[in-house]
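Archive entry. Fields below.
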Amino acid sequence: MIIQGLAFYLFSVIAVFSAVMVITARNPVHSVLWLILTFFNAAGLFVLMGAEFLGMLLVVVYVGAVAVLFLFVVMMLDINTLNLREGMAEYMPVGVAIGVVLFAEIAAITGGWVLAPEIEAARAQPLADPGAVSNIQALGNIIYTDYIYLFQASGLVLLVAMIGSIMLTHRTRPGVHKQNIAAQLDRGRTVELKKVSTRGGI
Amino acid sequence: MTVIANLGAAAPELFLAGAGIVLLMFGVFRKSDATAQVGWLAVAALVAAAGLVLTGSKGSATLFNGLFVTDGFAVFTKLATLGASALTLILSLSWLAQEQVKKFEYAILIIFATLGMLMMISANNLMSLYLGLELQGLAAYVLAAFKRDTLKSTESGLKYFILGSVASGLLLYGMSLVYGFTGTTSFDKLAEVLSHHPSTGVMVGLVFMLSGMAFKVSAAPFHMWTPDVYEGAPTPVTAFFAIAPKVAAIALFIRLLAGPFADLVGAWQQVVWLISILSMAIGAFGAINQTNIKRLLAYSSIGHMGYVLVGLTVASPEGVRGALVYLALYVFMNVGAFAVVLSMRQKGRAVESISDLSGLSRTSPGLAAALTIFMFSMAGIPPLAGFFSKLYVFMAAVKAGMFGLAIIGVLTSVVSAFYYIRVIKIMYFDEPVDSFDRPATANTVILWGTSAVTLLFWLWPAALINSAQTAAQVLFPG
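PREDICTED_STRUCTURE:
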């Protein structure tokens, strides 16, 4: 139990610290690296909760794919961070003040958090017994049956995102010659052999 | 098996999703430019979806494990949304042809945006609400940046995207608070839990959700993005933004507040009251100094949303009926007004400044007469349609004893009459500048149709008002 507690605090402290570093690091590449560290620690927290599938997903998808893409984009874009930071000192106090007020308010409300008694009965998806079914199975049971509508709707949202990004960035360049092997092989008798006499030319 | 048996209730949505995907494939695999074909097929798909809504079941049905609901209210608002989408798409098609934009994705994005709106209207769970909203929003962000080579359009798209994401964040944060304090996201169960245990946390969550929703309907004080986005986006996209998503978002607003949060009416009524008054005032005073017709219509739509929210503030069947009547007539007036704006072309180039309308009564009297009808109607001059829409919301407010709201509403509509009538004055009394090109045939037909409805609504108002009444009654059982 104590090891679990220690692991929890270790993961969460590092996660919060590296999340802060993501937005304060001077070099955008460092920011992405800190982001990867945040993902890893969040994955650790998932594993602690017994949601090992989500933990692995976080590592594979977010660290393996998303963060690497981020890294590529950051390296290619050549962002001047100094310009982005202009006015930071001006906005900082106001932003921090609003954040503190909001945090205090939320803390005050959640301090008095009482679950309504009906909730136990009203709960949409009772937690599956982790001993009986594996993580993936438990998720699959819900996603593809009860929540099929949401699953398909998210698919459509992603489709729209894809159409949008292609439409906004794809340019057809005229005059680009693409190799068409079939046409080349199928050229027919356009080549003829000629006997060229020495010093004569064609 | 029961799921499959009930799928018919979601037929319009399923059809539209399928049509969008099929048309996408059609457009991609066609070698030559398919903008016009895909566009008209998309119009046909929207009309067919409206047919499916009409022929579908009139009673209430939930499906997909309670995530999706159809009822009389949904039928009414879905028809208004589909109609608005189809009309603005027709207007867009002539614009695309005039500007020689060869991108069939335009119509596909409109279809998916409309699908998102239908999903919003039919949402019966916070999760399906959010996904519908995001589907509509994401398509809208892309449409705003549609003319990607012009600075204004891309700026408008980026602005809309960033501010829209902030609003979605607020909404999601509110939802997570509501979920945390009630343990459920289903509308039915929320209503049940909240009737016994309304906690402070739910109220805070509700305020966050209201802020997010107010952004989506561009109600003050969350209206800042509207004039900039409306001005920068291509004009047919502006027409689309100003009409269909507003109808769907207001429908969602009403369903949310009159459904799961009905028992917290004391809490949200004050908020919606304030939002409504601020929107009416900002819509009226903000438009006075505008020189761009699109910005003017943006402020006008902020004001209109204020009037619609008056109906919601009242929180009675009469109020919701007023709001629904207002929305339906708003669709006609605004489609007409934007048809005029889209006809503002001089020598093949679109113009959008109010001063370009100078002397329109002499250069193209038909266009001037039509815009006069819409402007008078939006100002609420009887016997035009806009008068009745305002009448029904104010009547509901007075009946519920909210005299302050009704008085402020009447005062702001007097102020807004000033800028509507200024447009008419410019058209009829100023010296003419260059004349406009002949408008596209589709625009003319739509212009005739919408001005006829706006002008002659008083002859036969019963049909609309009765169906709005039935739709509103669904939300207030007993």
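CURATOR_NOTE: Residues 134-167 of chain A form one domain.
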